[in-house]
Each structure stands twice: as structure tokens, then as C-alpha cells.
TrEMBL record:
InterPro entries: Acyl_CoA_acyltransferase (IPR016181), GNAT_dom (IPR000182), N-acetyltransferase (IPR051531). It comes from the Bacteria. GO terms for molecular function: acyltransferase activity. Its EC number is 2.3.-.-. Residues 19-175 form the N-acetyltransferase domain. This is GNAT family N-acetyltransferase. The keyword Transferase applies. It comes from Streptomyces amakusaensis. Transmembrane segments: none annotated.
Length: 180
């Protein structure tokens, strides 16, 4: 384990649904801006924008720190353990264990996000013994709503999460997936 407080192992590789979810590595730094420096990602996610080499370094360092703290895991989405297509995240918080994802523009429309979310949910249910995982997303984000639906999530009857990020207000719906 990373530490006495972290529920996450030092290294993670999850395989399923034609994907390999693996730890981000130093060799991924050059590919990260192409994946994350995009208007859609800047608008719909809290990922910094513009996303350059310095942002990539900061994200890799943050990923490692969050893992060690036991707060979150951020994994590269790949088909074979090689080049990253995007990222899937699992974050433990008081409101629940949240999954999140971002897929690079060149890799969208292939079901990558939904498959990565299902693989991460299986990890949460099997290895972390969780009963439910959640997605928090804006109703206007049609692509993410479609991912939630295809991955088997249902809209939960809970209050909207309202806030502001990057100078714009948002209202997040909470979607849930229960252990099978």
C-alpha cells in the first residue's frame, strides 16, 4: 500500500472492456496536452486551461500525491497499456465516491469513456467494497449524460451541486451506479 491511510496500492492496472487503465507515467507528459488542451475539456471539467507541459507535470504530480493521501486515483485510459487516450478518475469524498473522465478529442465516439467508467466502477465495487459510485455532471453536457446512461448510471433524486469554476456558474446533477 502507499501508506497506512491509503486504500490504494502503489501501482494499479485495470483490464477490461478492451481497455487497459494504468498509472500515468513520465513518458505520458508529452501526450497529455494533446488530450486535455481542448475547449470542451476546459468548459466541462475542472482541468486547467490552457493545458501545457507545465500543467501536465502538475497533473502527474497531483495524481501521485492524491494516491498517496488515499483521496483519488487518476489512471490513463489505453487500449493496450501504451499511448493514453484520456483519463479516468476515482475520488473518495464525503458526498460519495465519484468517478470522472476526460477523453482526448481524437478518441471520442468510440465508447472509450463509458467502458473506462465501467471498468473503474468494477474496481470500486470489487476491490474497495463500495456499494455505489457517482458521476457529477451538467445536464447540458449531452455527451457525458450519454456516457452515464450507457454505463448503467441513473439520475439520483438529490439536490443539484451549484458552484462556479473558471468564471462560469455550474449546476451538477448526481448520477449513481449501485453494486450489481
Amino acid at each position: 500500500m502507499s501508506s497506512a491511510t491509503s486504500p490504494f496500492p502503489d501501482r494499479i492496472e485495470l483490464v477490461g472492456e478492451g481497455l487497459v487503465l494504468r498509472d500515468w507515467a513520465e513518458g505520458d507528459l508529452a501526450a497529455m496536452p494533446e488530450l486535455f488542451d481542448h475547449p470542451d475539456i476546459a468548459y466541462w471539467t475542472p482541468i486547467v486551461s490552457p493545458f501545457d507541459e507545465a500543467a501536465a507535470r502538475a497533473r502527474l504530480d497531483r495524481s501521485r500525491r492524491l494516491r498517496a493521501e488515499g483521496t483519488a486515483i487518476l489512471l490513463a485510459i489505453t487500449v493496450d497499456g501504451g499511448a493514453p487516450l484520456g483519463e479516468v478518475m476515482l475520488r473518495r469524498a464525503p458526498e460519495g465516491t465519484e468517478l470522472g473522465y476526460a477523453v482526448g478529442p481524437a478518441h471520442r465516439g468510440q465508447g472509450v469513456a463509458g467502458r473506462a467508467v465501467r471498468v473503474m466502477a468494477e474496481y470500486a465495487f470489487g476491490e474497495l467494497a463500495l456499494d455505489q459510485v457517482i458521476l457529477e455532471l451538467e445536464a447540458e453536457n449531452a455527451a457525458s449524460v450519454a456516457v452515464a446512461t450507457r454505463a448503467g448510471f441513473s439520475l439520483l433524486d438529490v439536490p443539484l451541486i451549484k458552484g462556479e469554476d473558471k468564471g462560469r456558474p455550474y449546476a451538477l446533477q448526481t448520477w449513481g451506479l449501485r453494486r450489481p
